[in-house]
Specification:
- The chain has a 6-stranded mixed β-sheet with strand order 3-2-1-4-6-5, with helices on both faces.
- It is of the alpha/beta class.
- It has 2 domains: 238 residues, 3-Layer(aba) Sandwich (Rossmann fold); 83 residues.
- It has 12 helices and 9 strands.
- It starts with 24 loop residues before the first helix and ends in a 10-residue tail after the last strand.
- The protein is elongated.
Length: 350
């Protein structure tokens, strides 16, 4: 039996009506809007057993029962994970929703954040689950339960790390991966409204014990910063969402400029063509090119070093061999190229 933190959380019988900004009707309005856009069916719900994904699963079951299934990833990171899975099994059995469970060892690699590692393993499981289904039963849409508070936390984390536009754009409401459409229909719904919706239905959920640990920056933001923002800026969720949307639009323009510049510079890019660009456009096209090569996004220090080397590369004998992401950028004649792994000797002349 798990500890009290993992017991299903039930609404008290005398719960007061929630304040209007967090009214449970906000979730139904968001789901009605999502349904009006006719998402591709059948769809899968990423289902952890927590409050947010429990609400999303119930809302989807109310609208598309028989055309949905639940996907649960057992991350293997804590003893409570077994109870997460049992809770998901019980609820899906009661609703009549098929449940597919994948078990992974989501421990993070050295230098990788636990959150990034869990996300990477989770999406690998989603990819595998999507691939195993064949038409006409292939999953067309996967819905994920992140909400407005999660979006604010993501923006604040990005700000704390000095992120550029991709980080400030936070989480998209929709994207494609492996031929499947992923959507976040609750991204405009405050977290308290999600829980108010569950309480109005008398529906229990499980609480991940790690959510209470202030060791994690995201948890400190949730527990300490969001209440302060609510007091000073009551509309902070909507204003942060607008800022994230502006950042996403700006990044889209930068991507279009980078694609045009890369077409002019060539792939791999010619050093002379890169030098003809302004420093800002040179940095932009290099990020775009490295992303296309499946390299990790270069750190600020790595990108600065690469820009300095390209600017200084004015003779045929100038050597370039720099660690970027999971590999190396090196000069080969009149171009630079990126290779994964440790790399060999540097090619400087032709």
């Amino acid at each position: 039996m798990v500890g009290a933190a993992m017991e299903p959380i039930l609404p008290p019988n005398d719960s007061p009506a929630p304040a209007q900004p967090h009214a449970p009707q906000l979730l139904d309005a968001a789901m009605d809007h999502f349904a009006a856009r006719a998402p591709g069916l059948p769809l899968a719900v990423a289902f952890s057993g927590g409050a947010d994904s429990t609400a999303l699963l119930l809302a989807c079951a109310e609208r598309w029962l028989g055309r949905i299934e639940a996907w649960h990833v057992h991350h293997g990171l804590q003893a409570a994970a077994d109870e997460f899975e049992r809770h998901c099994q019980r609820l899906c059995a009661r609703l009549g929703v098929p449940l597919h469970v994948r078990r992974v060892d989501a421990r993070h690699a050295p230098g990788e954040s636990p959150e990034d590692a869990a996300r990477r393993h989770r999406y690998a499981c989603f990819d595998a689950l999507a691939r195993q289904r064949q038409a006409p039963d292939a999953i067309n849409t996967v819905v994920i339960a992140q909400h407005a508070d999660d979006q604010v936390e993501t923006v604040l984390l990005a700000l704390s790390r000095g992120a550029g536009l991709p980080g400030l754009a936070a989480m998209p409401g929709q994207w494609r991966r492996g031929g499947v459409t992923y959507q976040r229909p609750l991204l405009g719904v405050p977290g308290p409204a999600v829980r108010a919706w569950l309480r109005a239905r008398g529906q229990a959920w499980v609480e991940d014990p790690s959510n209470a640990s202030l060791r994690y920056t995201r948890n400190r933001i949730r527990a300490q910063l969001l209440p302060a923002l609510e007091t000073v800026f009551p509309q902070f969720r909507a204003t942060f969402a607008r800022s994230a949307a502006h950042a996403a639009q700006g990044q889209q323009i930068l991507d279009e400029v980078a694609a045009a510049d890369l077409a002019a510079c060539g792939a791999p890019p010619a050093i002379g063509a890169l030098q003809a660009l302004s420093p800002a456009r040179r940095a932009n096209v290099l990020r775009h090119w490295l992303a296309a090569r499946h390299a990790q996004t270069p750190s600020s220090a790595q990108l600065a070093a690469l820009l300095a080397q390209i600017d200084a590369c004015r003779t045929r004998g100038h050597r370039i061999h720099l660690k970027v992401g999971r590999g190396f950028v090196q000069r080969s004649g009149d171009v630079i190229d990126w290779t994964s792994g440790p790399g060999g000797g540097v090619l400087a002349e032709s």
